[in-house]
């Protein structure tokens, strides 16, 4: 990947359109989680300090191309100002006369947040006319929104083809960290992978099979692999189609990659019967539901991770949102954190994995926690991200 970096741009006195991912959780009209706001601060603060006239563009939620007060970014402007420690102006429009007037009033070092770019149908269709309207507001373009880099939208791709462009600090950091998993990673390389379904992560498995030494598999997808091997998983969540799991087992065997599967599990009679949770050997699930890996499995996975030099955590081991089923994810996370303290490179990738890492308190002990959900997944599948590809060539 070859692209300009934000430090390569002369920004003083220039109008710089910055695509950030400020798609934050909201509660009672205020920002409920500052993680994505904080992730954007380095790039915006740098532009402020270097005298740029910064114009921030982002989406919030899924307004489907129409104005909806529920998805207004106005409260995010206040949150951004609080975290930056400077005033942040807000435009009720994304493009058009009002937005143009707001931009015209900027002075060197000022920051302006535009209204939700997805209020316009041209955003998600990458409409050339809408992209041109956005581009007309600025002299330079910076994409710092890794979380939307897998979307070929007007604000992620269209504008990049119309203005001199560069990657922001977050984008640069994300790409460098994720590339460490695919470009000559230090060995041994272990992937702790969970989530609901194998079919959703076939691409991750197949792309990483040539790179990793072992997978430690949990979550609903572990049930699918177990079923593919003829193990009864009762009423547990699993894929109906077992063929993808069988194919991955065959590929792993041919390439000498270990696929670690649960030997015991935490089960219950139903998803909401937490008081009935108990541990059984994996061959004694009966008609119950598997909701977490068991303690023997967690210990085995921790042992597999202990000596790793490169580790990716790509999904929880169980229903970590419930205390009864947190232990497996917590033990695996702690093992990764310990390996990191001894010099391993650890990357948490994927929305559920990042949420689990933050919720269980081991996120800040990892080398990198990706802000991307779908973008991270597609990167690990080896796909080209449109928002990154657009930066890799001159406009």
Question: Can you walk me through this structure?
Answer:
It is a single chain. By secondary structure, the chain is α/β, with parallel strands linked by helices. It has two domains: 6-172, Rossmann fold; 184-380, Rossmann fold (3-Layer(aba) Sandwich), CATH 3.40.50.1260. 36% of the residues lie in helices and 16% in strands. It has 15 helices and 17 strands. The chain has helices at 35-49, 74-84, 97-104, 121-124, 128-135, 154-158, 169-182, 202-208, 219-228, 243-255, 295-306, 327-341, 351-359, 374-380, 386-389, and strands at residues 15-19, 26-27, 30-31, 53-57, 89-91, 111-114, 140-143, 165-167, 189-193, 214-217, 258-260, 264-268, 278-281, 289-293, 310-313, 345-348, 368-369. 53% of the residues are buried.
For this entry, give a set of tags:
395 residues, alpha/beta, Rossmann fold, 2 domains, six-stranded parallel beta sheet, 15 helices, 36% helix
Question: Nutshell version of this structure?
Answer:
Helices cover 36% and strands 16% of the residues.
Overall pLDDT: 95
Please outline the major beta sheet.
Answer: 6 strands, parallel
How many DSSP H or I helices? 15
- What is the quaternary state of this protein? single chain
DSSP helix fraction: 25-40%
CATH class of the largest domain: Alpha Beta
Q: What is the count of β-strands?
A: 17
Give me the CATH superfamily of the largest domain. Phosphoglycerate kinase, N-terminal domain
Residue stretches low in confidence (pLDDT < 50, at least 5 long) are none
**Gyration radius, rounded:** 23 Å
Which CATH-level-2 architecture of the largest domain? Answer: 3-Layer(aba) Sandwich
Shape: elongated
CATH topology of the largest domain: Rossmann fold
Give the termini distance in whole angstroms.
Answer: 16 Å
Which structural class matches the secondary elements? alpha/beta
Percent in strands? 15-25%
The total tally of domains equals: 2
């Amino acid at each position: 990947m070859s692209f300009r970096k934000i430090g390569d741009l002369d920004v003083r006195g220039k109008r710089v359109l910055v695509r950030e991912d400020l798609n934050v959780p909201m509660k009672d009209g205020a920002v409920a989680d500052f993680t994505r706001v904080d992730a954007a601060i380095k790039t915006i603060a740098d532009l402020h300090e270097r005298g740029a006239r910064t114009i921030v563009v982002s989406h919030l939620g899924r307004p489907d191309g129409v104005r909806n007060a529920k998805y207004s970014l106005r409260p995010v402007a206040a949150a951004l100002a609080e975290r930056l420690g400077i005033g942040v102006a807000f435009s009720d429009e994304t493009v058009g006369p009002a937005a143009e007037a707001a931009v015209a009033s900027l002075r060197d070092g000022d920051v302006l947040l535009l209204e939700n770019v997805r209020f316009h149908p041209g955003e998600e269709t990458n409409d050339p006319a809408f992209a041109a309207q956005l581009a007309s507001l600025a002299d330079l373009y910076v994409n710092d929104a890794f979380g939307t880099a897998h979307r070929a939208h007007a604000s992620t791709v269209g504008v990049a083809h119309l203005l001199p462009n560069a990657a922001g600090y977050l984008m640069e950091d994300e790409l460098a960290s994720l590339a460490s998993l695919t470009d000559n990673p230090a060995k041994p390389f272990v992937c702790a992978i969970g989530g609901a379904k194998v079919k959703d992560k076939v691409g991750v498995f197949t792309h990483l099979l040539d790179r990793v030494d072992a997978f430690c598999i949990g979550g609903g997808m572990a049930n699918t692999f177990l079923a593919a091997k003829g193990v009864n998983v009762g009423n547990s969540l699993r894929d109906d189609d077992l063929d993808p799991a069988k194919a991955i087992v065959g590929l792993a065997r041919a390439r000498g990659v270990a696929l670690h599967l649960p030997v015991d599990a935490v089960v219950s009679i139903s998803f909401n019967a937490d008081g009935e949770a108990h541990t059984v050997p994996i061959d004694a699930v009966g008609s119950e539901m598997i909701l977490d890996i068991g303690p023997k499995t967690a210990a085995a996975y921790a042992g597999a991770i202990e000596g790793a030099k490169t580790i990716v955590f790509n999904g929880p081991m169980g229903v970590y949102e419930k205390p009864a089923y947190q232990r497996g994810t917590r033990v695996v996370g702690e093992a990764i954190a310990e390996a990191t303290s001894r010099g391993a490179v650890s990357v948490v990738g994927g929305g559920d994995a990042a949420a689990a890492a933050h919720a269980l308190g081991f996120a800040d002990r990892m080398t990198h926690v990706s802000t991307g959900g779908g973008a991270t997944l597609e990167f690990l599948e080896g796909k080209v991200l449109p928002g990154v590809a657009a930066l890799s060539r001159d406009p």
